[in-house]
């Protein structure tokens, strides 16, 4: 059974693409998520929405609780997560208001808890950090109506300040395509939680290699201009996800739990049961 989670980023705070909405608070062993989850459905498929930064945009990319947000999705039975994100462009041909479905990410964050597994040792594979199948569906749906790029490397910076011109130019020279502040550790955690995860990125600006400066009002204004497009892409993709077959992402922990079963403390078993129970007896 498919259940689709949607994480709304800057400029996307409401699940107005849902048919009916019920609000649910979720408790997690990692603390509180950014907000309540909104439960609903799209064309008969169960859906869950969470505002990444919380209502009123209360949490910055460095302070928001990624572990709680992703754990909450897992606890609600979500199998596929679509993240909506605002990004700056690092190349001329990825223009403001274009849509990008990134296929790679380069992690430059340094202040964030980026694994569920502090109490046991788990090494998952992350060579392809975004689910290729989910990304393909998002691209196919989006490109029918909107100017869409099917790949790109997302440079995830710590923030919350925007880049300097020197940094922006270095990122371009290194071949990165778009820049944002939230793709990691979200993608890592979704993989650890064995959920398919992909990003619909809206280009809001050309970052500072091209412009004199980037301002938050410019980002929010352009993200809001594309809100209807993002909601439309999600609505049209959900039905197709219901037909998506099994996927490697859903088995990411197979063979990845390195700590011997008999060395896993009872407290860790309790805390991590939701994530590791298919692989651990008792
Ligand atoms: C609001 S300006 C910078 C902010 O926007 C993006 O957030 P999100 O990915 O949640 O749309 C970017 O990553 C920064 O966090
Ligand atoms: N230029 C930029 N840098 C970092 N994050 C962003 N989000 C949107 N535009 C951005």
Automatic annotation (TrEMBL):
Which positions are annotated as binding phosphate?
A: 10, 52-53, 85-86, 182
Q: State a single Gene Ontology molecular function.
A: S-methyl-5-thioadenosine phosphorylase activity
Entry EC no(s): 2.4.2.28
Which UniProt key words apply to this protein? Glycosyltransferase, Purine salvage, Transferase
Q: Which reaction equations make up its catalytic activity?
A: S-methyl-5'-thioadenosine + phosphate = 5-(methylsulfanyl)-alpha-D-ribose 1-phosphate + adenine
- Source superkingdom: Archaea
Q: Where is this site: Important for substrate specificity?
A: 163, 216
- Which pathway does it serve? Amino-acid biosynthesis; L-methionine biosynthesis via salvage pathway; S-methyl-5-thio-alpha-D-ribose 1-phosphate from S-methyl-5'-thioadenosine (phosphorylase route): step 1/1
Annotated Nucleoside phosphorylase domain residues:
3-238
A Pfam family the protein falls into? PNP_UDP_1
What residue intervals traverse the membrane?
none
Instruction: Decide whether keyword ATP-binding is in the record.
Output: no
Where does this protein hold substrate? Answer: 181, 205-207
**What Gene Ontology biological process does one annotation of this record name?**
L-methionine salvage from methylthioadenosine
Q: Does the keyword Glycosyltransferase apply?
A: yes
Task: State a GO cellular component annotated for this protein.
Answer: cytosol
* Family statement: Belongs to the PNP/MTAP phosphorylase family. MTAP subfamily.
What is the documented function of this protein? Answer: Catalyzes the reversible phosphorylation of S-methyl-5'-thioadenosine (MTA) to adenine and 5-methylthioribose-1-phosphate. Involved in the breakdown of MTA, a major by-product of polyamine biosynthesis. Responsible for the first step in the methionine salvage pathway after MTA has been generated from S-adenosylmethionine. Has broad substrate specificity with 6-aminopurine nucleosides as preferred substrates.
Assembly and binders? Homohexamer. Dimer of a homotrimer.
Q: Could you identify this protein by its name?
A: S-methyl-5'-thioadenosine phosphorylase
Q: Which organism is it from?
A: Methanocella conradii (strain DSM 24694 / JCM 17849 / CGMCC 1.5162 / HZ254)
The organism's taxonomy opens as: Archaea, Methanobacteriati, Methanobacteriota, Stenosarchaea group, Methanomicrobia
